[in-house]
Write a structure and sequence with these properties.
Layout: H1 3-38, H2 43-73, H3 78-98, H4 103-106, H5 109-118, H6 124-129, H7 133-169
Length: 181
């Protein structure tokens, strides 16, 4: 495991995590505003919709980026990927705590923790003021584990796809070309 690769991965993965949360937040805001124009939904139903959007969207974007990174590199060191994710999670957690687990920085953490603690009686006030901070932290760690797993698997699959594609391109290269003299 190379320290230089881990340090570079840390920066790139932080951008993946943060950028994915931000893009999904924009998509969620657009989708929720469109749905609310046609149907009046209660806060618990909107919370479940947000949880589904973030739980599917953020890992999908991270997986997409990881797949193409693995495909581009044609190799995947699982240990370097995970080692690069550890400082990423720490920095991401610090930013999430700074912004009180808002969706643009932490994805679905706030909504999931609030729904787990308050159930269907969730309101915006109970989400902010009555959900224990430790539940936010545990939920954040669970989502971080999901993100790391998705990134690692996608990067691994992308690198193996590249190796398979190379082998298919080179299958006819084993025979030497014939030249007319």
């Amino acid at each position: 495991m190379k320290i230089k690769n881990v340090a570079l991965n840390f920066g790139v993965y932080f951008l993946y995590f943060l950028g994915s949360c931000l893009l999904v937040m924009l998509a969620e805001a657009l989708l929720v505003s469109i749905v609310e124009k046609f149907v009046l939904l209660s806060y618990p139903v909107l919370t479940v919709i947000r949880i589904v959007i973030y739980t599917v969207g953020v890992p999908a974007l991270i997986g997409f980026l990881g797949y193409f990174e693995g495909y581009r590199e044609a190799e995947c060191s699982v240990s370097e990927t995970i080692a690069g994710c550890i400082p990423t999670i720490i920095l991401h957690l610090l930013f999430a705590m700074l912004f009180k687990f808002q969706a643009f920085i932490s994805g679905s953490v706030r909504f999931t923790a609030g729904l787990l603690h308050n159930g269907w009686k969730i309101t915006y006030d109970s989400l902010i003021n009555k959900t224990p901070y430790s539940l936010f932290l545990l939920t954040f760690l669970a989502y971080s584990a999901l993100y790391v797993a998705v990134l690692t698997i996608a990067k691994y699959v992308g690198s193996h796809k590249r190796i398979i594609d190379r082998a298919e391109l080179r299958k006819d290269e084993s025979s030497a070309p014939e030249y007319d003299v």
